[in-house]
Backbone:
């Protein structure tokens, strides 16, 4: 059995979630579809090119070096977290489309869904997107090849 040494800094994930929540709540309060678009772009770019993840970059370049947030590096797979973020970004694209089409209730409900799921992860440590990823992995869906650490990961 292969022993994995893959690591993920969960503090970076939590900072990312906190920024997502803060900007989306601000977007709702200001009724700003463009702020929702900004968050969607940050999430999708960070999914496609993790090195360009703005909110995680703020953590690694500012918050962690300043000692404001301490690292919490644990053995974990990064792919489920990227999937969760990418899926959230896609949901926000749907929200933007609804808001621009005049379906404000649907648009803000989708934004609310992303806020709730990010908060669930930030405050309770449950990543719904990771759960979906691992269920797809269990079903053998191509592209979802990582298993939870300790279970053939």
Residues:
């Amino acid at each position: 059995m292969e022993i994995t040494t893959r690591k993920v800094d969960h503090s970076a994930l939590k900072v990312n979630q906190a920024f997502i929540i803060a900007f989306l709540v601000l977007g709702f309060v200001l009724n700003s579809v463009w702020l929702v678009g900004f968050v969607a772009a940050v999430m999708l770019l960070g999914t496609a090119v993790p090195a360009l993840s703005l909110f995680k970059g703020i953590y690694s370049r500012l918050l962690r070096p300043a000692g404001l947030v301490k690292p919490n590096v644990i053995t974990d797979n990064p792919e489920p977290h990227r999937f969760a973020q990418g899926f959230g970004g896609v949901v926000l694209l749907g929200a933007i489309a609804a808001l621009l089409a005049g379906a404000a209730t649907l648009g803000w409900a989708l934004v609310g869904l992303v806020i709730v799921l990010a908060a669930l992860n930030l405050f309770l440590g449950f990543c719904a997107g990771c759960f979906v990823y691992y269920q797809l992995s269990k079903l053998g869906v191509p592209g979802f090849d990582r298993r939870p650490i300790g279970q053939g990961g």
In short: Residues 78-100 form the longest helix (23 residues).
